[in-house]
Amino acid sequence: MSDEAAPHFDDFINNMQAGHDFLMKEFGVRPRIAWHIDPFGHSNAAPRLFAEMGFDAWFFARLDYQDKMRRLEAIEMEWLWRPFFNHTGKRTQIFTHAMYQHYSAPDGFDFDTMNDDTQPIVDDPTLETYNLDQRVEAFRDWLDHMNEHYTEKGHLFCVMGDDFRFANARQYFTSVDKLIEGFNARYTDMQLMYSTPSMYIDAIAGNAQWPTKYDDMFPYADSPLSFWTGYFTSRANDKGYIRRASHNLHGAQKLFGLQVIDQDQDQQRYIDIVNAGHKTMDALGVL
Question: What are the DSSP calls for 256-269, one per residue?
């Protein structure tokens, strides 16, 4: 997950390339979904690059509060984004999902130890603190309300967690396990399961007609007096250093490329070239 507003697109691509390279080497996986939940506004360039990188969809949390209110009312929290449509047409369109509750668990269901407002689920009816029935009913009410704001009614994507959560993962998942078991035992028309963005996208694919969007999502504000545009121009010296280093990296990669296609070079030379590029990317904060 990278910034979308301040960086040059070349840095954006390098960041994604480094991440994909790591995932392929360590796990043999190529991601299908872009998880961009926390950038402060969304550019047209990001969805275009994601589409051209082979992503099927992307998810994010932050959209302007007025836009979110309008989209909730119009049932447009999911759409087909067609960036640079006049130039690329539908070739770079990508399915977009805006999260219902920011990137946070439903109110009252954040089970981490750092949250003092949420009590763990107690499923033993012999205890005075038993609360499973009440918690299950409250969660169903929350899901029913969420369901009113999404086009595809057969599936809902509910995020659990938040910033810095799962400090006590055992406690968190124990309560989620109890919530899932208790909910599924009580209701037959709706069932809970651990899932992933990819599973959700596969489940809703082809089931509905989606609205479209063509422009960007700047500026971003989360309340009438809380615009996040200051970071576009803040820390100018730091951004200047990054730009110059990025230019050097871009130039060096061209030279590296010429070296790599030189068949007279030996294998160690290729390894040294790649490592030199990685060192520069590391200094830029890309790796």
Answer: HHHHHT-TTS-HHH
